[in-house]
Amino acid sequence: MSNTPPAAHPWWESGIIYQIYPRSFQDSDGDGVGDLTGVEARLDHIVSLGVDAVWLSPIFPSPMADFGYDVADYCDIDPMFGDLAAFDRLLAAVHARGLKLILDFVPNHSSDQHPWFIASRSSRLDPKRDWYIWRDAQADGGPPNNWISDFGGSAWQWDAATGQYYLHAFLKEQPDLNWRNPDLRAAMMDVLRFWLDRGVDGFRIDVLWHIFKADGLPDNPPNPHWTPEQTERDRLIQRHSTDQPEAHAISADMRALADSYGDRVLIGEIFLPNDRHARWYGTADRPQVHLPFNFQLIENAWDAKTLSRLIADYEAALPPFGWPNWVIGSHDAPRIAARIGDAQARVAAMLLLTLRGTPTLYQGDEIGIGRVDIPPDRIRDPQHMQQPTLDIGRDRSRTPMPWDASPNAGFSSGDPWLPLNADWPSRNVKAQQDDQASILTLYRTLIALRRSTPALSIGSYRAAGADKDVLAYERGHRGDRLLIVLNLSAQIRSLLLPPGTRIATILASTLALAPIDSSVRANEALILRLEDIV
Fold first, then answer.
1. Within 13 A of 426's CA, how many CA atoms are on the CB side?
2. Range 501-524 average pLDDT
3. Across-strand partners of 177?
4. CB 3.0 to 4.6 Å from 267: which of 27, 126, 204, 331, for a disulfide?
5. Each residue's pLDDT tens digit, 398-429
6. b/e string for 363-396 if b means 16 or more Cβ within 10 A?
7. Hey, which residues does 509 pair with through a beta bridge?
8. What is the mean pLDDT of residues 62-77?
9. Whether 474 contacts 381, CB under 8 Å
10. What is the C-alpha separation between 351 and 486, in angstroms, rounded?
């Protein structure tokens, strides 16, 4: 078996992270938008799942041009969500239940309403001018280079008052910070200290690989494989606007700061090929983020051959000290049940919770929320509005959590800011709570099994032989040998056991338990304990 981890394991290796999108989790004051008091009121649901940590998407003061990822004050709470006192109450309640709390840190850009940017754009001579990235126009008056915003259009915005362009990798309301400026770096490290001093257990770091740009800001090369079905951003290869060597030193400094507070975790949002992705772990003597987020289960085709290859390639690329992690859903990605259907969403749950590494579960996936169609007049996502023909809107993954069959699904006494999933009267937490066949029960069963079985939480991984359309692998720890078998098809497939073994126990199935007759049922996934034939 490969990649056996060390004997001692920090909580974030054996644990499970649950992502909350606060706007859509629970509203406590009737304005149709979730808030911190609402999150606190629903902590028992999170405890009942059996997860270890809660990650909150941004809750800081913001004009909400990009729903919190345009931060106007890094050290306060947006009144929409509450205040610092409400945050402190939530943090205490989370810790009282034995959970950890992870905040979303947005270091690449601020809001254009942040006092730093207001000062920066007030004058070329302002002390904070260099806290952002300003450049003169080209001779023809055009932008300084050809960079494209991730949301489409030029990544440069003209500022008539000071006669220069500023850089924005996302919306023009999200100007990029200049991490080459030592005062800006110090200020952002102070932001981390502010929240660490308050008691948070770590950070998910937004678009970490974006924070440095190549010196001189050269043009990005064209992408020869681009087609009109892709985003405008993908017309260029982001060679000079992302993943610069200097960013790794900042990542390492963040890690050193987090480690100085004890058992904390840093999770970096990074979309890169395996070899470059692995560099964000750093080195054994100069580590960087604990977990560079791994989105490959979201980004690739859902078939056994593809998944088998990507798991093997990802494991092989990890440094010896690197711990893997897996994600099947987020506030930015289509719902897993919408992508692959209800039956395979159950298989995906078992895949997420049995692979080697830390799993992150996104709110609502535990009840199988699928495709949610957003009427045109209810669309809120600026990414969709920038490129409306590409069907890349994120609203459908951010709809309110349905708790029960009461008005507005128990989410709010007011009109929810986004529509609920159409099947909310039957697909909600209360409806699935005591249903032994529900996907919620399956998640709780799998999480409990993972927590009680070291082979699943910290054990080794090895690919196993399998029939067509079947993904199989072994997990092992101190003689306990498990076989995970996932049928990714709607047909019965053969069950292949490793030579010299037999089934000792069926630990779990995504379907009703039944005797095994050397086959795997359609859309079934199994966890089997093996024993040697003697």
1. 4
2. 96
3. 132
4. 204
5. 999 999 999 999 999 999 999 999 999 999 99
6. bbbbbbbbebebeeeeebbbbbebbeeeebbbbb
7. 526
8. 98
9. no
10. 8
Q: Which of 11, 15, 8, 27 minimizes the C-alpha distance to 408? A: 27
Contact 483, 470 (CB under 8 A): no
pLDDT(7) > 80? no
**pLDDT reported for residue 261:** 98
Task: Enumerate the H helices of 304-423 as residue ranges.
Answer: 304-317, 336-354, 382-386
Three-state DSSP class for residue 298: helix
pLDDT given for residue 8 in this prediction:
75
CA angle 258/174/239 to nearest 5° reads: 75
Q: What pLDDT score was predicted for residue 6?
A: 41
Q: Length of the chain in residues, anyone? A: 534
Residue corresponding to tokens 């030193």: 249
Residue 390: band (very low, low, confident or very high) from pLDDT cuts 50, 70, 90: confident
Report the C-alpha gap between 44 and 403 in whole angstroms. 12
Beta-strand ranges (E) seen in 79-228 are: 100-105, 134-135, 156-159, 164-167, 202-205
The two three-digit tokens of residue 406, written as one number = 């009461």
Average pLDDT over residues 215-244: 97
In tens, the pLDDT along 454-511 reads 999 999 999 999 999 999 999 999 999 999 999 999 999 999 999 999 999 999 999 9
Residues 6+ apart with CB under 8 A from 434: none
What's the rounded Cα separation, in Å, for the pair 200 and 48?
22
pTM over 0.90: yes
How far is CA 527 from each of CA 49, 164, 307, 362, rounded to the nearest angstrom? 19, 60, 18, 23
Q: Is 409 exposed, middle or buried (0-12, 13-18, 19+ CB in 10 A)?
A: buried
- DSSP state letters, 501-526: EEEEEEEEESS------SEE-TT-EE
3 has a pLDDT exceeding 50: no
Q: How far is CA 395 from CA 65, 418, 425, in A?
A: 14, 8, 20
38 pLDDT more than 80: yes
Mind telling me the catalytic residues?
A: 206, 269
Distance between CA atoms of residues 443 and 350, nearest Å: 8
Which H helix or E strand runs over 483? strand 480-487
Residue 207 is classified by DSSP as T
DSSP 445-465: HHHHHHHH-HHHHT-EEEE--
273's tokens = 């090929």
Q: Which amino acid is at 138?
A: Q
Strand ranges across the sheet with 164-167: 134-135, 164-167, 156-159
H-helix segments, 81-132: 84-96, 115-120
Residue type, 354: T
- The Cα–Cα gap between 73 and 123 comes to 21
- Rounded to 5 degrees, φ, ψ at 462 are -150, 130
Indicate whether 534 pLDDT > 90.
Answer: no
User: How large is the average pLDDT for residues 263-283?
Assistant: 98
Average of per-residue pLDDT values in the chain: 97
